[in-house]
């Protein structure tokens, strides 16, 4: 009698498919959805932005998400090992992606720590009447390079809490740590955040806010920068080409419906993002209504200022301010935290696989080093400057470069595109046709290269 091996795989795995899907949604839905998307859409053509956004989602976002899945699921390693298995000398592509994760993690954690402080402040509306002075002077102490006790309390303590929590989850591992956290928090986030959006929609002035967000400015479509913004948003938001989805799918069981899960994740992520746009702009419409100005006259409609200056001002004006503030900043913390876990697991598993480190030493090492750097940077005001620079380089240049290198490498260098396509089709119900190869081997890298050149030229000028 021949015996078929039923030995369990040594690799850690998700316990169920929904665990994988929720974790992937947890990684995708993050600060990028709440904190980045509404402002980017508003500044990049409003309603017209939906066209480049959808184009980016369909021509690059979903196809590259599938590519990440295929690489991780077939090669069964996080980025460096997975690329090494595709070709010996290609490990560097994986390390490049791992480097991006490390850098982004350092500042991403800081924004979560700020949100955590604001979560606490929401109970007393501590920012008072002048939220701008509060954020810049009292909270970040801009203009004061010394580490003061206030900054330690506002930023360093929550940062330490964030990092200790991440390290704990990583030590618990994929199924007992990451999966459990996402199973609990993602449904909670969806419910809490939906409640927030409904509340915002019922505020006076909400429709003005929505008009400001969705009125199409068609001439934006001829602006290459708008297209670049759409592609960058999709990459960041779906967490693709960073090696994270490679890691997450490498923990997926061998028989798993990969492409269908991918569609669920992409759809959930974009829906959440658009929901966030609706919620944020309804609330801004309310602020404009209170101040009797047009939404376009409001200042600070994007980035950290939107979240930590403009939004607190909105909250203060609202009936039931405390609850709204608590749920809003609570959502940011949860959404950010589940993404931060994914950033860090990419790095710590890369070290585990490369150097044979155990899970706990790798988690403590990676979390400890990133944590120390982020505490050191963000306890002084240099962090705010670093945040901007890193956002430019890691998120725009870094990830686009990574996507180009990865697609060209797979399709044209090792010529494994069709092998990976057949791999996904063998396990999935949603079948990929040859069109997928055209997208990842032609359309996406070609467009991304134009974008990259344009970006570099604009940075040099
Ligand atoms: N997708 C996350 C967000 O939207 C950010 C992220 C990027 C997470 C890259 C992991 C990797 O906020």
Nutshell version of this structure?
The chain has 461 residues and is mainly α. The protein is built from 18 helices and no strands.
Describe the structure.
There is one protein chain. It contains 18 helices and no strands. It has helices spanning about 15-30, 30-45, 50-75, 80-85, 90-120, 130-140, 150-170, 175-200, 205-215, 225-240, 245-250, 260-290, 305-315, 320-355, 360-380, 380-415, 415-425, 435-460. By secondary structure, it is an all-alpha fold. The radius of gyration is 22 Å and the shape is globular. It has a single domain, classed as Hydantoin permease (Orthogonal Bundle). About 75% of the residues lie in helices and about 0% in strands. The site of phenylalanine has 15 residues, from helix 1, helix 2, helix 10 and helix 14. This is Putative NSS family transporter. It is found in: Membrane. It comes from Gordonia rhizosphera NBRC 16068. It holds the Pfam family SNF. Keywords: Membrane, Transmembrane, Transmembrane helix, Transport.
Radius of gyration: 22 Å
Uncertain segments: 1-7
Assigned CATH architecture:
Orthogonal Bundle
| SSE order, one letter for each helix or strand | HHHHHHHHHHHHHHHHHH
Q: Give the strand tally.
A: 0
Average per-residue pLDDT, rounded, comes to 91
Measured by DSSP, the beta-strand proportion falls in under 5%
Report the structural category.
mainly alpha
In CATH's first tier, which class applies?
Mainly Alpha
* Morphology call: globular
Outline the biggest β-sheet. Answer: none
**CATH T-level topology:** Hydantoin permease
Amino-to-carboxy terminus distance: 72 Å
Bound molecules: phenylalanine
- Please identify the oligomeric state: single chain
Task: Count up the helices.
Answer: 18
How much helix is in the residues?
over 70%
Total number of distinct structural domains = 1
């Amino acid at each position: 009698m021949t015996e078929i091996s039923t030995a369990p795989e040594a690799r850690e795995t998700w316990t169920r498919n929904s665990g994988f899907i929720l974790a992937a949604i947890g990684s995708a839905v993050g600060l990028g959805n709440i904190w980045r998307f509404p402002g980017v859409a508003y500044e990049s053509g409003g309603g017209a932005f939906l066209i480049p956004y959808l184009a980016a989602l369909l021509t690059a976002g979903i196809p590259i998400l599938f590519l990440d899945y295929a690489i991780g699921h077939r090669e069964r390693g996080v980025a460096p090992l997975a690329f090494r298995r595709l070709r010996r000398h290609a490990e560097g592509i994986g390390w490049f992606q791992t480097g991006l994760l490390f850098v982004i993690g350092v500042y991403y954690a800081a924004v979560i720590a700020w949100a955590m402080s604001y979560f606490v402040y929401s109970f007393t509306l501590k920012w008072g009447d002048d939220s701008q002075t509060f954020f810049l002077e009292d909270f970040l102490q801009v203009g004061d390079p010394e580490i003061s006790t206030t900054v330690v309390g506002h930023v360093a303590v929550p940062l330490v809490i964030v990092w200790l929590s991440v390290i704990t989850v990583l030590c618990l591992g994929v199924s007992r740590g990451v999966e459990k956290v996402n199973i609990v928090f993602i449904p909670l986030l969806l419910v809490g955040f939906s409640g927030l959006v409904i509340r915002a929609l019922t505020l006076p002035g909400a429709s003005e806010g929505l008009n400001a967000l969705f009125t199409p400015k068609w001439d934006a479509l001829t602006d290459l920068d708008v297209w670049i913004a759409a592609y960058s948003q999709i990459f960041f938001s779906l967490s693709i080409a960073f090696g994270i989805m490679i890691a997450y799918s490498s923990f997926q069981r061998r028989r798993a419906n990969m492409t269908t899960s991918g569609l669920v994740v992409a759809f959930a992520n974009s829906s959440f993002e658009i929901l966030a746009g609706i919620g944020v702009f309804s609330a801004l419409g309310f602020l404009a209504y209170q101040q009797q100005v047009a939404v376009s006259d409001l200042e600070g409609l994007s980035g950290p200022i939107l979240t930590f200056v403009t939004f607190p001002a909105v909250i203060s004006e609202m009936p039931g301010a405390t609850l709204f503030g608590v749920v809003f900043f609570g959502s940011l913390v949860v959404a950010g935290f589940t993404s931060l876990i994914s950033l860090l697991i990419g790095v710590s598993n890369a070290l585990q696989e490369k150097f044979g480190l155990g899970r706990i030493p790798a988690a403590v090492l990676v979390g400890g080093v990133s944590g120390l750097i982020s505490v050191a940077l963000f306890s002084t005001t240099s962090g705010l400057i670093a945040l901007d620079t890193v956002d430019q380089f890691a998120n725009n240049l870094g990830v686009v470069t990574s996507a180009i290198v990865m697609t060209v490498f797979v399709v044209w260098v090792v010529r494994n595109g069709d092998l990976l396509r057949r791999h996904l089709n063998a396990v999935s119900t949603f079948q990929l046709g040859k069109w997928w190869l055209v997208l990842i081997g032609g359309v996406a890298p070609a467009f991304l290269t134009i974008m990259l050149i344009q970006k570099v030229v604009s940075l040099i000028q």
